[in-house]
Design brief:
Its EC number is 1.5.1.5, 3.5.4.9. It catalyses: (6R)-5,10-methenyltetrahydrofolate + H2O = (6R)-10-formyltetrahydrofolate + H(+); (6R)-5,10-methylene-5,6,7,8-tetrahydrofolate + NADP(+) = (6R)-5,10-methenyltetrahydrofolate + NADPH. The chain folds into 2 domains: about 90 residues, Leucine Dehydrogenase, chain A, domain 1 (Rossmann fold, 3-Layer(aba) Sandwich), CATH 3.40.50; about 120 residues, Rossmann fold (3-Layer(aba) Sandwich), CATH 3.40.50. It has 10 helices and 11 strands. The strands form 3 sheets. Strands 1-11-8-7-5-6 form a 6-stranded parallel β-sheet. The chain has a 3-stranded parallel β-sheet with strand order 3-2-4, sandwiched between helices. Helix 6 crosses helix 7 and helix 6 crosses helix 10. It starts with a strand and ends in a 5-residue tail after the last helix. The protein binds 5,10-Methenyltetrahydrofolate.
Length: about 290
Amino acid sequence: MTARIIDGNALARQIRAEVAGRTAALKARGIQPALSIILVGEDPASQVYTKHKVNDSAETGLEATLERYPADMAESALLERIGVLNRDPAVHGILVQLPLPRHMDASKVIEAIAPEKDVDGFHVASAGALMVGRPGFWPCTPYGCMKMLESIGYDLKGKHAVVIGRSNIVGKPMAMMLLGKNATVTICHSATRDLKAMTLQADVVVAAVGKRNVLTADMVKPGAVVIDVGMNRNDEGKFCGDVDFDGVKEVAGWITPVPGGVGPMTRAMLLVNTLEAAERAAANRADPDD
Ligand SMILES: Nc1nc(=O)c2c([nH]1)NC[C@@H]1CN(c3ccc(C(=O)N[C@@H](CCC(=O)O)C(=O)O)cc3)C=[N+]21
């Protein structure tokens, strides 16, 4: 038996269509949802990614503005610019593309973003809100993974979910979201003694390390759901994930591909968060008699 594929491109397309509908409804009330993307420096991958985000936004009727600054921009100037965007009521979401140049403190920059505009969900206030189950913004990558599980009708209650990787932007928030759906969650990382013993028990595995072949067929319980967050290049320069897809697909029940899996979902959830930011701003400003 080979695993069924969770098609991230198809699901992302569906989500973008929903975003387009809700955006049209906001526009009909005179509100144009708007996202400001800040790119500092010339990193080629970042230039491609930010261009994608602008195009995705345009497709769904969101207004995305890309602001580009030189790599030697002073951190104080960036903080000042974020302050201006924070105070601008026409801007609903602010995204500072990472990585930032080395002379900048990324945490300090991200924490300068108003939490109600933190559509990346990277602010400590957003992390705290997720942890205690309060409204906020969920980081787009783990949020997209949850949507993929939802799309196959998967009930996480009582299931064992193993997350490989403990980053602040994927592993840790992923574990919190799975816990929120009543899964039993194990977080594995570089100091985990017997990774295979952990993953063999898992009903759901999320691989988010950033290294090829972290998960191979011998490590997967038959029928498990495998979500691949990795973004790597193989020896031929081809885009690949953390999971040995060809091997694991023969054991797993469901699997996400790379490319065409979590990546497009990450971008789709950014649109959802931006729209949500605009809807919340509209609700807060609405006349009580409205
Ligand atoms: N503030 C900030 N927020 C981010 O969300 C952020 C960031 N900085 N810095 C860089 C990473 C990377 N990232 C990707 C998202 C989607 C794809 C994606 O859609 N990948 C396609 C392939 C795209 C291609 O072919 O190049 C796929 O997996 O099918 C890739 C990369 C967001 N990031």
